[in-house]
Amino acid sequence: MLSQPLQVSFEVGEGRQVIIETGKLARQADGAVTVRQGNCIILATVVANKEPKEGQSFFPLTVDYQEKFASAGRIPGSFFKRESKLNDYEVLTSRLIDRALRPLFPEDYFCDVQVLVTLVSSDPEVMPDALACLAASAALAVSDVPVQEIISEVRVARIDGKFIVNPLRSELAKADMDFIIGATEKNIMMVEGEAKECLEEDLIKAIELAHDAIRVQVKAQQELRDKKGVSGKREYKKPEQNEELRAKVEAFAKEKVYAVAKSALSKHERSDRFDEIGTALQEQLKKEYEVAEGEELDSAISKKAKGYYGDLQYDVVRDMILNDRVRLDGRGLEDVRPLAMEVDALPSPHGAALFTRGETQSLTTVTLGTPLDELLVESAAVSVYSKFILHYNFPPFSTGEVKMMRAPGRREVGHGNLAMRSLKQMMPGDEYPYTVRIVSDILESNGSSSMATVCAGSLALMDAGVPFPKHVSGVAMGLITKEGKFAVLTDILGDEDHLGDMDFKVTGTREGICGVQMDIKVDGLSMDIMRQALAQANRGRMHILNAMYEAIPAARGDVKPHAPRMVKLFIDKEFIGAVIGPGGKVIQEMQRETGTTINIEEKNNQGEVSIFGAKKENVDKAVNWIKGIAAQPTVGDTYEATVKSIQPYGAFVEFLPGKQGLLHISEVSWKRLETLEGVLKEGDVVKVKLTGTDPKSGKFKLSRKVLLPKPEGAPSGGQQRPERND
């Protein structure tokens, strides 16, 4: 017999209720809850090992979000007809949860923790990613897994000038700001999203509104935890500390580490010097612990010494930046590393750019494709096609390492998504006929290759002739705080990312922000500090934008000669059948005669025609052909007509594709003609004027003679014979 489940509920605005329940499902997990809004139900479970693995020195947290297709009454479209590896949307949602949860665990907690979040019932109007972190945190809250705080996430969107918390899917389609914010009751922890050139103060407003909504959700989780009777968290085995050894490490290495940190060395030189100090430290410890020559230092002491040495580097570099206001490479706090940019960097791609900032380098290409190249983006609730694709690659040589080449990992998916969302804000709309794929290959990395991807992508799009109206640049910012002091760092290095208290990336144009990704690792970060950081990011962004406009000030007026030509036009839907023809006869003939690829479909109650070809003249020929089929003949207009057949009473001519009329023998010339022999023949092209239509039959009346000079003495009406029965 199932026990009675425990429930709490709250509202997220506009009468929308969210219910959190525990005690009914997955009862053998350490913690399990369901979160429900409308018909959307998410199951979250958490299980943690009681003991860490032998020798474990890092926190092994695994977070997986997955959508069951059955939740929306669908069967997966894969060959095996079952859910397999996580798709990009699931990976991105998993990252949103992971980034918010990870800082909640104690630094000395090394037990394996697995958080599984599953969409088991889908609602077409409810966005599950805004509820997924709430579910994961609630599962931790009702467990005895030792998290330090309760957290939640909400989506805040600005729609028609109004901020809305967790908007419906249909509402979100009209938003010009879309951010997901994670926070505890007191502190903001994570921000990610996109905007159509919003101001920094708009972002602050969205964060503050989100925090108010999150406090309600945290309170609900506390209430559910109290109902379950969770009074404390489990004890766990903490790593033993050797303060004597820590003091020895500090005494030997502190000044040496400081000297290297102040030397403004390159990444690899600095790493080599730190390694040399580490090796010398091990030799010094052998002497202090009186290890016989030829023997090794006790492995436990050696391992702890390496850990303490890493902690020492962390503290020394942070103190140097805070106190000396100088960074590892010798820059000031706001200095951006040297920039080098090159467009048209490769001869064969449709667009290419090489962007280098310090020791970070991206080689980015743009490829223009047809509607047949669109990407299917599938989730349980919706399946949509995307015409804008961005892929980010991070090969091991970019950091001077040897690693196995695998499929793109979560980091690559996340970095690529941030760049894609940022550049998407300036992409032309559905009227642009091309499918656009950007590929960023990171050739060097020492600090924010995702921001290099944004800059290189903007340059490559303009190089490709995509009508990209403004450059978008990005800069990675850092923050170090200690005992009331703080330092905001512009364009951080990889080492500064590791030792900082906040890592946030801001992208945008000269007019506003297009994308943000922010992870905050410190408690009590004030909005004033965040405002200063955003203002400093704005200055860094403008510095990079100025250099980008010098490299290429505007998009090329046309695609490159070797790029495919593509035109999109719209016709009345009643002409779709005429363009296709019986059994596809007409469209196949057009493709064969013009050497183009033509795609036609009905959208928004009209026909959308995309024409794709290698040569401009062929595309123009197909465009004119289709326009002729879809054109409405206008009485009084003049047309170039082709003679199709000769009859005793006149010639049948095609004056628009698919549209024929009779040029009566009396309308060929001002002279009276007994026959058309010697005057017209099949294949001749003549100018004709549409003079009217037969009110009964609807047939077109055409005249050639009215376009010819009228001879003197000719009757005004001409010598028209009565029409014969055709």
UniProtKB/TrEMBL annotation:
The keyword Metal-binding applies. It holds the Pfam family RNase_PH_C. One of its GO terms (biological process) is mRNA catabolic process. Belongs to the polyribonucleotide nucleotidyltransferase family. This is Polyribonucleotide nucleotidyltransferase. Mg(2+) binds at D497, D503. Its main location: cytoplasm. Its EC number is 2.7.7.8. The gene is pnp. Residues 636-705 form the S1 motif domain. Involved in mRNA degradation. Catalyzes the phosphorolysis of single-stranded polyribonucleotides processively in the 3'- to 5'-direction. It comes from the Bacteria. Keywords: Cytoplasm, Magnesium, Metal-binding, Nucleotidyltransferase, RNA-binding, Transferase. It comes from Flavihumibacter petaseus NBRC 106054.
